[in-house]
Amino acid sequence: MHFKTIIEPFRIKTVEPIQHTTRAYREEALKRAGYNLFLLKADDVLIDLLTDSGTGAMSSEQWAGMMRGDESYAGAKSFYRFESAVQEITGFKHVIPTHQGRAAERILFGSTLKPGNMVLNNTHFDTTRANVEYRKGTAVDIPISEAHHPELIHPFKGNMDLAALERHLQKNHDDIPLVMITVTNNSGGGQPVSMANIRAASKLCHKYGVPFFLDACRFAENAWFIKTREEGYAAKTPLEIAQEMFSYADGCTMSAKKDGLANIGGFLALNNDEWASRAKTMLVITEGFPTYGGLAGYDLEAIAVGLHEVLNEDYLHYRTRSVAYLGDILTENGVPIMQPPGGHAVYLDAKAMLPHIPQLEYPAWALSLALYLEGGVRSVEIGTVMFGLHPDGSETPAAMELVRLAFPRRVYTQSHVDYLAEVILYVHSLRENIRGLKIVEQPPALRHFTAILAPLS
Ligand code: F0G
């Protein structure tokens, strides 16, 4: 008998209480936080979907691994276990631990980028873009055109536009130190990239002598989508698929806070000896000695075990299904979302849901506040507050107004998701009453983290 219910493939050994608050309490909490969900106390949140980064639950094996952590300054056993876990999956020669993904980005671009260079990506994540721009480079996003249309269904909406890639390479290859593909494409809705696209992008880059890298934060979720959606991969294991993905690349950056199933950590891995040697020099200056790179020995152990667990088929099946489960309920009830649901998050389409709120009154931000007010749910706006402000102080509407509901790994159960669906459907029924906001105070960059807002009456 083949039973159809997909269960959480774990049982729970430690629990962390979460508390209900009243709507009146949350109304006050929002006021105190300047109508910015980043400024709430986490204790005032019932279900926290702000991010899937570093928020996952570790397994008993990971905790056991932490007790084995070797805290030697140099040459610790934990480093070699970490290195071999990364090498088994990626095959890269040099493995450089960092305290998280953005440190790997800083070190990679710090050792390869010259002012005026260009980096191409399907879509740069904010920190990746910031690290390119900080080095006076230009970060150019070239996703396929389907990526810009939330309602369109495409199995690999994270793919890179190969024609655009070739155009840029033909014209500018001398000024492009590397090309990157982000798997899955977080800023584009957590959408996967096909093996065919990775293979073709790699081939094009190599034709022009340009190194090809993966931003591998969610490599295992991407591998699962290849297994279930791309012809020829159904019989392969997620590990084999991941190995093939990495085989086309010259290196990767990784945040182990996502598919490393750890609370902190990351790495840069690559084949080029000269780049690795420059990166290690930068590592020693700001992160730490090359066998710990800003991490404790026990963190390296947790990541080594996590990288193995994240490729388990039952885990990946449950993981992608729990996100799709929410997406399906919302779609059946007419709530507009980025289609199809991504690997780590459901993205609500606030532009479609709240057409009465102009973009410069921040519809996605308003929707994220309503989810908190009505149900104690914290999400994150990916819209005009996040992307609308430019270095010259001008403001323009973002391409999309999304609210991301990111699922921490192995943390919430199906009843949490059922509750979440109920809250979203309720807020959807009230949508005509939701009002926009104005910004009262903001910093000159990355304003979404600290801006103070006020509701428009
Ligand atoms: N690349 C991608 C695709 C990411 O999603 C992130 C982080 C990073 C790089 C940077 O990694 O946080 O370890 O420094 N994303 C988190 C998020 C913060 O909420 O999506 P980091």
Kindly describe this structure.
This protein has 16 helices and 14 strands. By secondary structure, it is α/β, with parallel strands linked by helices. The protein has 2 domains: 23-52 and 312-455, Aspartate Aminotransferase, domain 1 (Alpha-Beta Complex); 60-309, Aspartate Aminotransferase, domain 2. The termini are far apart. Ligand F0G binds at residues 51, 53, 100-102, 125, 127-128, 182, 186, 215, 217, 255, 257, 266.
What's the quick description here?
By secondary structure, the chain is an alpha/beta fold. The protein contains 16 helices and 14 strands.
The coarse overall form would be globular
CATH topology description of the largest domain: Aspartate Aminotransferase, domain 2
Total domain modules: 2
Order of helices and strands: HEHHEHEHEHEHEHHEEHHHEHHEEHEHEE
Query: What's the CATH architecture name of the largest domain?
Result: 3-Layer(aba) Sandwich
Distance between the termini: 58 Å
What portion of the residues fall into strands of 2 or more residues? Answer: 5-15%
Query: Biggest sheet, in brief?
Result: 7 strands, mixed
**pLDDT < 50 runs, ≥5 residues:** none
How many individual helices?
16
